[in-house]
Amino acid sequence: MKFKNTCFILTTLALSLAVCLATGALAVEPIKIGVAGAHSGDLASYGLPTLKAAQLVVKDINEKGGINGAPIELIVGDDACKPEIASNTATKLVSAGVKAVIGHICSGATKAALPIYRDAKVLLISPSATTPSLTQSGEYPNFYRTIAADDAQARTEVDFTINILKVQKIAVIHDKGDYGKGLAEFARTFIEQSGKARVVLFEGVTPGAVDYSAVVQKIKHSGAEAVIFGGYHPEASKIVGQMRQKRMTTLFVSDDGVKDDTFIRVAGKDAEGVYATGPADVSKNPIALEYREKFKKTESADPGAFFDNAVAATLALANALAKAESIDQETMAKVLHNDKVATPFGAIQFDAKGEPIGIEFSIYQVQNGQYVQVR
Questions:
Q1: Phi, psi of 134, rounded to the nearest 5 degrees
Q2: Would you tell me how many other CB atoms lie within 10 Å of the CB of residue 19?
Q3: What is the pTM of this model?
Q4: DSSP string, 69-106
């Protein structure tokens, strides 16, 4: 009788095991990673390249067996680059069980979402959020980025405008946001410290407005030889267009929020000659070439802004997960700080504050309808 019971138990276990294997119940749990940013709205041209970059890198990783045998599952969250939406997006991603997030894209949205990730012990790597306080305040030890901060970007803009363009009177305009205003304030400070030029106008504009003729008129009356603009392409294209309508030849220098093909398409011929900062041209880097080609095969177009930075962010995160052999934030942080990883920008790692070591800004100019690196 005991023998029969034993046989029955073994047979039951065997059948249960077979059912589990057939249904995948014993499969390794996937590592959930969030991808957050503007996937809709006016600034989707910044967020969608990041999403595609993450998808392409993760596809390669999963095809090679995942991270230590576990596949990566991407959970996508759209914040439209709006702080009031970003916090809700972050809450949803945390509730979905993400262990890390690639994003957010805009600094204001990132700032709104970060406390939620910090409290949930979720690590965040942004390819494009450049506000310095995100790393320098010490509030967010879970935050990293694969792009240089706005103080470095503003320094690049100011040095170029004063020393290369030989401008002495500068109007500094911004969109009142965390990113745009913050960058403009750094620019103003660096101009004043230079002793070679002066700020003849410092003015904020309202994002989304149809008419910027009032600030354009102020720029004209100020006698500014150049405008340094802090903000994004929708406002920049309108301001530049209205300046050119008034036959103003004032130079226009902006940031990586404007170094986007959408700005050129919207501004049209008025975009010609505009300068903008952006991550260095990495088109000859083998990793950059590999993922740009993969993008073109599926999208039949060139990748947009921050694509290379997003590839770098995804590769850095995957390396941290693999080397740490853990989803613990502090364990992954040790790898990010101490281990170099190959990216489109070369081998990078992160300093104690989460800033990337090895990534800097360059100057681009619109020439014949496309951005060309000039310095």
A1: -65, -30
A2: 10
A3: 0.84
A4: TBPEEEEEEE-TT-HHHHHHHHHHHHHTT-SEEE---S
